[in-house]
């Protein structure tokens, strides 16, 4: 591996993490924003929905933009969008700016989850097969988690203003722009940019049942993550009387950060084992999280089951992603990532949208009940779809022409 490729790998992987670091920074501050701006539970859910909507738009219309612009220029463009989101939060003054800021961060995240992820996998081609998928699966979780912790800690333990904090985050993003500019390009540009704006996704041949089962994993796990993003901060403040942004960050990241551990173990497991066992334990933990709040009235128990659930999500999600990527060619990767993350973000966005549109104000317990029922339903469907082994398909057996314009 030459020097530019090494720099590129570090820059692209770091860019993917810092992108989500920026997106995770506002989450522990939701209870503060709720108090300052007078937001209801439905409005908080809509704030998260705007973020998730922002992710869906580029995944539908811009999944292969880097195939035409090049991986490196597209990555720089995405990081510049992230900077715009940081500046919006630095000067936040009303609910509309909150929603616009989350929409911008969602657009950056949606673009990054396909384009930058594909760049990372390209640059890791000389490394073990599991390195690229592990990083692309873990980076969003790691970035969101660290962003939450740092933001919550800065807000709770220092006198640094949110304006200064988000300006500093923007400066960190600039550092990774420089690293990416020094990196090697991995994609030969091809014509057809305007035609590529038509919604079109890539699925390796003979992988429909694998993707259907994987979709149940993506939707089920990310839907509960959507609840955590919207309501963790409010849950800590309203249900337990704890007005501490650092604790709010810890509660939210308990369902995220351990995902990295699960992602590491996923490489040792067959995809069906990763899905059936990983998602199965995740589902059980989702039920116990509900029991922890409604029966045990214990925040500690809720956090413990969140941690276990996050590890199992990492196993099930990374196992599914690794198998799908192993069946894909380089030209198909952006489209495959887009399909994966469109499904995942949709699993978060649609339940948040439903909560935001339902008239009236419901308790967090009632809202969580709906999410847990969804997780259980997705697990049962996944069990049926994965009852038989998936057909074996190698990436070399999939002609690149299937992704041509």
Offer a concise description of the structure:
The chain has 405 residues and is mainly α. The chain has helices at 3-24, 30-37, 41-61, 65-69, 71-90, 95-123, 131-157, 162-181, 193-196, 208-240, 245-253, 259-266, 271-294, 299-326, 333-357, 364-385.
Explain what this protein looks like in three dimensions:
This protein is mainly α. It has one domain (3-185, 200-388): Up-down Bundle (Growth Hormone, Chain: A). Helices cover 75% and strands 0% of the residues. It is built from 16 helices and no strands. It has helices at 3-24, 30-37, 41-61, 65-69, 71-90, 95-123, 131-157, 162-181, 193-196, 208-240, 245-253, 259-266, 271-294, 299-326, 333-357, 364-385. α3 packs parallel to α6, α10 (208-240) packs antiparallel against α16 and α12 (259-266) runs parallel beside α14. The radius of gyration is 20 Å and the shape is globular.
């Amino acid at each position: 591996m030459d020097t530019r490729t090494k720099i590129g790998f570090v820059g692209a992987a770091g860019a993917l993490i810092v992108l989500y670091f920026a997106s995770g920074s506002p989450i522990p501050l939701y209870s503060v924003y709720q108090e300052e701006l007078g937001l209801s539970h439905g409005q908080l859910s809509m704030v998260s929905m705007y973020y998730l909507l922002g992710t869906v738009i580029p995944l539908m219309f811009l999944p292969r933009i880097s195939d035409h612009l090049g991986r490196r220029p597209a990555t720089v463009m995405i990081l510049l969008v992230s900077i715009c989101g940081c500046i919006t939060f630095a000067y936040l003054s009303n609910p509309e700016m909150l929603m616009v800021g989350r929409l911008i961060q969602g657009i950056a995240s949606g673009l990054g989850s396909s384009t930058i992820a594909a760049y990372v996998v390209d640059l890791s081609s000389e490394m073990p097969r599991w390195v690229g998928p592990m990083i692309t699966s873990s980076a969003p979780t790691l970035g969101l988690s660290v962003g939450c912790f740092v933001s919550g800690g800065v807000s709770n333990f220092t006198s640094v203003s949110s304006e200064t904090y988000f300006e500093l985050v923007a400066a960190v993003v600039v550092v990774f722009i420089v690293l990416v500019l020094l990196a090697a390009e991995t994609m030969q540009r091809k014509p057809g940019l305007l035609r590529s704006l038509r919604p079109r996704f890539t699925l390796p041949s003979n992988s429909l049942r694998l993707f259907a089962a994987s979709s149940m994993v993506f939707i089920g796990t990310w839907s509960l993550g959507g609840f955590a993003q919207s309501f963790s901060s409010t849950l800590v403040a309203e249900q337990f009387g704890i007005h501490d942004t650092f604790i709010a960050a810890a509660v939210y990241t308990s369902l995220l950060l351990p995902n990295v551990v699960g992602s590491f173990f996923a490489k040792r497991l067959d995809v069906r084992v990763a899905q059936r066992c990983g998602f199965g334990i995740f589902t059980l933990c989702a039920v116990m999280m509900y029991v922890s709040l409604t029966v045990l009235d214990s925040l500690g128990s809720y956090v413990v089951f969140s941690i276990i659930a996050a590890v199992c999500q990492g196993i099930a999600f990374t196992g599914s992603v690794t198998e799908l990527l192993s069946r894909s060619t380089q030209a198909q990767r952006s489209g495959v990532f887009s399909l994966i993350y469109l499904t995942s973000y949709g699993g978060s966005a649609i339940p948040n949208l439903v909560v935001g549109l339902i008239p009236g104000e419901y308790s967090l317990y009632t809202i969580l009940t709906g999410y847990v029922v969804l997780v259980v339903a997705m697990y049962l469907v996944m069990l049926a779809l994965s009852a038989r082994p998936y057909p074996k398909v190698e990436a070399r057996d999939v002609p690149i022409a299937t992704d041509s314009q």
